[in-house]
Design brief:
Elements: H1 35-65, H2 78-108, H3 114-147
Helix pairs in contact: 1-2, 1-3, 2-3
Length: about 150
């Protein structure tokens, strides 16, 4: 990636020092993160979403749509019902924004190799499929409730 400092356009690329930190540390006052930090943030976000964010969303969407969950017959605690009721849509929005952020981070720092590209496409496909499943499951059940 070509090193360029927008605040000091008269500098040649070899005059802009390399740094593992922010661009401020490298002599450029823009404060934009380097490509390596963007890649690290991208994979940290993917790990969080695949291990925590999307499983919680899928679990909540399943719990939300089974009728026995909302009755005392199911044996589910009241606090869990309150958590699912109050946090489902914020979690849905958070997961959508996290997937969108992951996609933007891919565009900001494109994969350097074919292996990284395949990994990014696989991760984005998994996240998109899980999110789509949760959203379609919720919408389909709501339509069934309206029709009955």
């Amino acid at each position: 990636m070509k090193r360029f400092c927008p605040e000091r356009p008269n500098l040649r690329p070899e005059q802009v020092p390399r740094s593992g930190g922010l661009a401020i540390e490298s002599g450029c006052p823009t404060g934009l993160p380097t490509e390596d930090k963007i890649i690290l943030a991208r994979f940290a976000l993917a790990a969080f979403m695949l291990l925590v964010g999307l499983p919680v969303l899928l679990w909540f969407s399943w719990m939300r749509e089974i009728p026995i969950f909302w009755t005392n017959e199911g044996g589910y605690p009241v606090w869990l019902r309150a958590v699912v009721l109050e946090t489902y849509y914020p979690i849905l929005l958070f997961d959508f924004l996290a997937i969108l952020t992951y996609f933007i981070l891919i565009l900001r720092a494109p994969p350097r190799s074919v292996l990284c590209l395949r990994l990014d496409v696989t991760i984005l496909s998994l996240m998109g499929a899980a999110f789509s499943f949760a959203a379609i499951y919720t919408v389909a059940d709501n339509i069934l409730v309206l029709l009955s």
